Amino acid sequence: MGQDSERSGRIGRRGFLKGVSVAAGIGLAPWLAAACGNGPKAAPTKAGAGLDAAFFERPDGAIKDLSLDQVPAAQQKTSYEQWVARAEGAYDPPIKLTTVAQTSPVTKYPKGDTLAKNVWTRAYESRYGISVETKWSVDQSQWEQRTNLMIGSGDLPDFFLASQSQLDQLIRADLIADLTATYKDHATDQVRATILEAGPTALESAVYGGKLMAIPFVEQNETAPHWFIRKDLLDKAGLGVPKTMRELLDACAAFTSNGTYGLAVGPSPNQDLGYLQAFFNGYHAYRGLWIEKDGKLAYSSVQPEMRAALEQLQRMYKAKQIHPEFGTRTEEQVFEDWANGKVGLIQGRGSGPNGTDILKTNNPKAEVVALPVLSMDGEPAKAQVDQPNVRGYWVVRKGAEHPEALLKMLDFWVSTFYLTPSDEVQAAFISDGEEPNLWTLNKIALYRAYKNTDVHNTLTKLLDSKSADVASYRPEVRFWYDYLKPAFTGGKIDGYQYRSLVGYYGPNSGRAVQDLYRKQDLYMPDGFFGVPTATMSRRQASLDKIEAETFTKVIQGSPIAEFDTFVKEWKSVGGDQVTREVNEWREQQRARR
Amino acid sequence: MTESPAEAGEQVATPPRRRKRRTNARALHLMLVPGILVVLVYEYGPILGTVMAFQDYLPAFGFLNSEWVGLENFRFVLSLPDTWEVVWNTVSIASMKIVAGLIAPLATALLINEVGKKYFRRGVQTIIYLPHFLSWVILGGVLIEILSPTFGIVNQFLGLFGVEPIYFLGDNSWFPATLVGSDTWKEFGFTTVVYLAAIVTIDPTLYEVASVDGAGKLRQAWHITLPGMMPVIVLMATLSLGNVLNAGFEQVLVLYSPQVYDSGDIIDTFVYRMGLIDFQYSAAAAVGLFKSMVALVLISTSYYLAYRFAKYRIF
């Protein structure tokens, strides 16, 4: 059913093609673009009166509606025609909006449909009189480069998704419209509630000089790192489910035997160490974050806590609890190990790790449970997350006639994607059973921070109760209920069902952990969420390089003193300067509020 | 290269014989137009883009409005602590590749040339140049598997002779050699074809004369084949010198990891991380321009050397 909009775990492609395309782009586009030139350089917008506190307040009633999983009886049979019927405030005559789009490699279009013309564009047309034209589309991996070229050429569509640094440039070059009034007058309560569910920083990060310059594409909050552990191996070793980091380490040692590794360590997309955040977090160490220290922001990877965590990893590497070649293995190989039962412990981010289905199919005794990050001492461990949870910013070209059309489309998106009333609407817009990714065809979106966790909670309640009246629930809940029911009534389930159970909707699933994080607020957010500072953007590659190099080498047995050398080097190569700039940013940020 | 109707009209007045020759030449020149256009658009056009090396280039401002910073980008790149390590890696890896890439195909061509059976020669030729057509993404996956110290076939084979497992892709002392070896293996078959073609042009009577004089196969190779191939060898060497700052972007990107940054991080991969992941277009352009300047000097030098020592020249 794939409503799970979370970033896929398989990003391990080394993406040099991406590089090649940009390299070509760098060469060619500029001189084509140079001829056109761009608008005059505008002075940065002066700080205005500022937006009042009410601007950042979540509309009360709306959020209740959002987390409501039951459909009012009157709506349960909504037909497609009713759903797309002309709305109040539709444009007459119809208007045209241009945009650019990301393609999804997995989506197959229903007969005759394309990315440019599909159920979503038809709905915008019939419901609001908005005809959306897609000027070009490109695979997600090339998105930022391609939009940079577009911005360079000065040929902007009416609206598009910009990255944070693009937003910053667009504002400085005075190319995009101020959306303050548009948002105040046209954002419906459910749209506002969706954006503000991610926390006030999401909206704040789009405010420049007292003006809202973009609509943040808010992301899920439910993807913080946690553990997946093999319960059957714990039982075999006579161990209980770990409650502390120490017990977790004991379990790793117990799992390790010839050819089986306690802890899975893999590369992240850019070949750096991944799958270790949950480990570091157990030591109150955080990778690549700006954390509060002595009243200032400090870089987390150079703190003493990190040193202790690395020392422990080194001990584990020596004891063969980590794959000896972790430094050169691909992400796929890590998942293969998991699937083949060669690993006892792996980090997840809400959903179940790839390969869990194979693991269960090949080894029916295998049992996986999710654990939150566990602490090394008495103090509760916190899971590191990016803040604000923003995937990008919806910007409107300066001079576009109908910026408010954007908010109509967003309202339709929230209504359809999150509040689907009937199977017919579900099948038309989101998933018709054959194509689970119809929803990716829409041109504009926002993601709720905790939708999947809410579905998890509802489902847990439904599956627990003996006489659940499922009929009145939304299609997504009903789908998962039917899909997972056998697991709770003693029926046979296959590997895929088991993977959903472990990742999403079982009592010990990743989503249950995310719910725990949410309820107890066990997040360690990134204190810096501005545009990369001058030194940061210049030195980041060098700083990341020594960090990755040192961490890998220390784990593989280099003396721990190398960590201290790294900290010194990090500071002198630009880290100190970056720290100063980050703290300056924070002062400005505070003044802005 | 535009041909106006007026010019075409004038041609009518010229004497018949001359006109015929001129028209032929004109048709040939016209055939050059598409090629020249392609070169202008795709090779010369982008040169204008190098202005961004002297700017603080931001896409939203374009070329006309981005701030001019003079040589700041070059200064910045040279001030990075990684720069010299990365340049050294690039030059050393590229030089080893150039040497290996000259010797291996040459030796292979000489050996294949001595094989009498035609089907065998063809077969060997085909098999050894096949890897040339595979991308590094595919070969990278294969190499990671077969070079693994724990389960890779190469180390298992070495184990039979009592050799300790070698971590080809994770050990700084082995990584450059692995790069050079695998690159040579991938490309030597293709270059061999060029040398074989050069051997074919050698006059067979020379060999007959030599064998009458009592020269064996080795002597023939040394005194006839090699001198006969010399212009091509010099040409190949000359051409490859321009690549001394290209150590193979794709290959390194697929095979390297943080533990071999010390010996394997090359200019292109560092620029990739800095310029294309962090979107530092100007700095990346500065490095690109710097690389081109060095390549220009190297090619000019080697061209001059080729003329001095092998009397080889294009112009």
Automatic annotation (TrEMBL), chain A:
Organism: Tenggerimyces flavus
InterPro entries: Bact_solute-bd_prot1, SBP, TAT_signal
Protein name (record): Extracellular solute-binding protein
PANTHER family hit by this protein: ARABINOSE-BINDING PROTEIN-RELATED (PTHR43649), DIACETYLCHITOBIOSE BINDING PROTEIN DASA (PTHR43649:SF12)
Entry-linked SUPFAM superfamilies: Periplasmic binding protein-like II
Pfam families cross-referenced by the UniProt entry: SBP_bac_1 (PF01547)
From TrEMBL, chain B:
Keywords: Cell membrane, Membrane, Transmembrane, Transmembrane helix, Transport
Transmembrane residue ranges: 27-45, 86-112, 133-154, 188-209, 221-245, 281-306
Gene3D superfamilies on file: MetI-like (1.10.3720.10)
One of the Pfam families matching this protein, by short name: BPD_transp_1
Region (Disordered): 1-20
Cell compartments where the protein resides: Cell membrane
UniProt keyword annotation of Cell membrane present: yes
Domain spans labelled ABC transmembrane type-1: 87-302
Keyword Transport tagged: yes
Membrane topology reported for the UniProt record: Multi-pass membrane protein
InterPro entries (alphabetical): MetI-like (IPR000515), MetI-like_sf (IPR035906), UgpAE/MalFG_permease (IPR050809)
UniProt family annotation: Belongs to the binding-protein-dependent transport system permease family.
UniProt xrefs under PANTHER family: BLL4140 PROTEIN (PTHR43227:SF11)
Name of this chain's protein: ABC transporter permease
Annotated organism of origin: Tenggerimyces flavus
